[in-house]
Design brief:
It is built from nine helices and no strands. It is mainly α and about 230 residues long. It has one domain: Rhopdopsin 7-helix transmembrane proteins (Up-down Bundle), CATH 1.20.1070. Helix 3 runs antiparallel to helix 4. The chain is globular, with a radius of gyration of 19 Å. This is Monocyte to macrophage differentiation factor.
Length: about 230
């Protein structure tokens, strides 16, 4: 019982059905520090990748990080906190769309699959509207939308004639999915949100590596560096 009480001080109670989770001071600090892990990587990757499609992914990922930083850095007033939490959930949809954008735009797709190039952004816009109207009201529905958007483009990507890099893309997607367990475990697992950040950083690193190796670099450049 004493061990349980010591463990509990690092974790707040489970969030209500229609409200957001409020981290303890320990969890809040961990949430801030874990952003540094992905920030270092993004700066290194951004300095070496310069195509329009990859720039889109970088910009959306940077926007996601800025919203996350603002959410954890600004004074936790009720209005400001709610606003940034909504923005955080909205940007996740565009984060998913941007992860697929390089593959959908830089690889040849069939006539029935090419629509996914713009449809992922339409899904992201629809998710944004949903969060604006029903934020924190139907959490299971919101999770379902995230997973649907994450898996739907995968059906198109796997049908491409050139499948180089899809193994890394799938590995990154699996890491994201494993991270969802922690994303939904606030109030159950201590530092769950910080752990979720680490899963996101790792999955993004795998995806960035695949883009750099298979989409950005030419086969000649790759052989030169072997």
């Amino acid at each position: 019982m004493r061990f349980k009480n010591r463990f509990q001080r690092f974790m707040n109670h489970r969030a209500p059905a229609n409200g957001r989770y409020k981290p303890t001071c320990y969890e809040h600090a961990a949430n801030c520090y874990t952003h540094a892990v992905s920030d270092v990587f993004k700066k290194k990757f951004s300095s070496g990748t310069h195509t329009h499609t990859t720039d889109i992914e970088i910009c959306v990922h940077v926007e996601y990080k800025l919203v996350q930083k603002a959410k954890f850095s600004f004074p936790p007033t009720r209005t400001v906190e709610h606003c940034f939490h909504m923005c955080d959930r909205m940007v996740i949809y565009f984060f998913i769309a941007a992860s697929y954008a390089p593959w959908l735009n830089l690889r040849e797709l069939g006539p029935l699959a090419s629509h996914m190039r713009w449809f992922i952004w339409l899904m992201a816009a629809g998710g944004t509207i949903y969060v604006f109207l029903y934020h924190e009201k139907y959490k299971v529905v919101e999770l379902f939308f995230y997973l649907t958007m994450g898996f739907s483009p995968a059906l198109v990507v796997t049908s491409m004639n050139n499948t180089d890099g899809l193994h890394e893309l799938a590995c990154g997607g699996l890491i994201y999915c494993l991270g969802v367990v922690f994303f939904k475990s606030d109030g159950i697992i201590p530092f769950a949100h910080a752990i979720w950040h680490l899963f996101v950083a790792t999955a993004a690193a795998v995806h960035y590596y695949a883009i750099w190796k298979y989409l950005y670099r030419s086969p000649t450049d790759f052989m030169r560096h072997l």
